[in-house]
Amino acid sequence: MTVPTPDTETTIPLPRSGDEDPDPAGVPPAPGTGPASLRARSVSAWFGSHQVLDRVSLDMPARRVTALIGPSGCGKSTFLRILNRMHELIASASLAGEVLLDGEDIYDRGRRITHARRQIGMVFQKPNPFPAMSIYDNVVSGLRLNGRRAGRGEKDALVEECLTKSGLWKEVRDRLRQPGGALSGGQQQRLCIARSLAVRPRVLLMDEPCSALDPTSTRRIEETIAELSEEVTIVIVTHNMQQAQRVSQLCAFFLAEQGTPGVIVEHGPTTAMFRSPRDSRTADYVQGRFG
Ligand SMILES: Nc1ncnc2c1ncn2[C@@H]1O[C@H](COP(=O)(O)OP(=O)(O)OP(=O)(O)O)[C@@H](O)[C@H]1O
C-alpha cells in the first residue's frame, strides 16, 4: 500500500483486514506480566491518502491513567486503535512510527498481532457484550479466543475475580447464567471491562467508555478505573473534561487545525494541564471555549 509519508518515516506495510497473522517464526515470545508502559514514537496515520495523525509521540507510564482529550475528528480514536494494532484492520489504513510496550515495538515484523492484543485490551464506546451469551461465558470468552484452556474451578475463580474488579460481582453473582444482553447499559460496560480483564492485559485502552451511560453508571465506571489503575495501565479517550480530571494523572491534548493532521499540542500531568496550561489552545479547549 503506497501512501505519502514524510521522508524521515518508515511506513509499516500493514496486512489487510482478514489476513493471517504475519508471524514467520510461528512461535510467539512469551508475554510479560503486570502493568506495562506504552510509548508512541513519531506515530503518523493515514486513511488512503488522507493523513490524520502527524508524528505523535507520547509516553504512557505503567500504573497510570493517561487521558486523551481534544475536539472531534483530531485523531484520538485512531491513535488509540494504533496502540493495539486495530488500525490495520481497516483496508485503507497505514501508519508510520513505533509503539513500544515496555520497550518492545508491537509492530516488529516478528510479532504476532495477537501478542499485542493479548497484552493490550480495549473497551469501546458502546458496550458490546455477546448479548445471548451468559454473563459467566461473556467473561471467559476471551480465554477461548486466546486459545487458552481452563478447568471449571479456574474459570469460576476468574469470573468472580474479574467481575469483582469491574465492580459488577455483587450485582450479578446470583444470575451468572442470565444473558449479558439483559443487563443495563452501565452493567454491560462493566461486563465488557471484566471480559477484557480475564485475559490479564497489561494495558487497557478505553474509547469514551462512558459516553453511552447515565451519570450514575459513569460514576461507577470511573470508580472502577481508579481501582484498576494499580494493576493495569490505562489510556482513556474522553470528551468530558471533568472526567479527564477525575480519572487521569496524565493528559494529552490532541488538535487537528484547519484540515491539518492531528498532533499533540500539549501533554503532562492532568492537574497542570487544567490549572496552568502552557499553550493558549489548550487553555481554550479545557475551559470549554471550543470543541
Ligand atoms: N475508517 C475510517 N476511514 C476513513 N477515515 C476515517 C476512518 N476513521 C476515522 N477516519 C477519519 O480520521 C480522522 C480522525 O478520526 P478519529 O475518529 O480518530 O477522531 P477522534 O478525535 O477520535 O474523533 P471523535 O472524538 O469524534 O471520536 C477523521 O477525519 C475521520 O473522519
UniProtKB/TrEMBL annotation:
Keywords assigned by UniProt, alphabetized: ATP-binding, Nucleotide-binding, Translocase, Transport
Biased composition, class Polar residues, residue ranges: 1-11
Swiss-Prot/TrEMBL GO biological process terms: phosphate ion transmembrane transport
SUPFAM superfamilies, alphabetized: P-loop containing nucleoside triphosphate hydrolases
Keyword Nucleus: no
GO cellular component: membrane
Start and end residues of each ABC transporter domain: 38-286
Top-level taxon of the source organism: Bacteria
Presence of the UniProt keyword ATP-binding in the record: yes
GO molecular function, one term: ATP binding
Official protein name in the record: Phosphate transport system ATP-binding protein
